[in-house]
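Lab notes, practical 5.
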Amino acid sequence: FESAAYGTQRTRQDMLPNGVHSAYSKEDIIRFMRVTTAKTAEFNGLRFYDTQIYLNELVLRCAVMNEQFQNEVERIFKQQAGASFMAGPLKKKERCLIKTESDYFAEAWPQSSCVLDLIRCTIVFDDMTAMIAGIRLFENVVADKGTTCIGEILRIKNGFLEYEHDSPQYADIKFNVSVRNTLTHNECVA
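Output from the prediction step:
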């Protein structure tokens, strides 16, 4: 399974129509900093907004959507032979901050929008046949709009593309999907 069918654009939280969007542009914050007295070397308005305001909104939104997402994914795989669902913990804000500053420092502002896996779960398959059937099941359910909160598959990272049979190692397939709150219609990437 290759991810080409799901586009090559960098996936970000702020790319979704109802995703987490900054209330201000980068230019707005730079302009605010020029006209305020908060121009001290210790205060970085862009970093503050990204990591203290934007990231908090993202964490809160994902926390609200987490249970519904977990229930939907569990429901999809409940009847799948050879598949075991495990809900994952919500990624903590501290870990999101580390990821923002170490992995995404060179990305467009707000860099926190590049953190995608706050909501996560794991499906373990008994064998490759069950895994392929499970992937097809998930793709079909999402494509047929068979869930209340999963909108679409945005990206697939296939770790098996780099797998070498001569030196076996851990490999997995990661899906990033859009998740929407059925009450507010807010979205995030999980």
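Observations recorded by the TA: Helices lie at 26-35, 45-77, 93-103, 128-143. The first strand starts at residue 83 and ends at 87.
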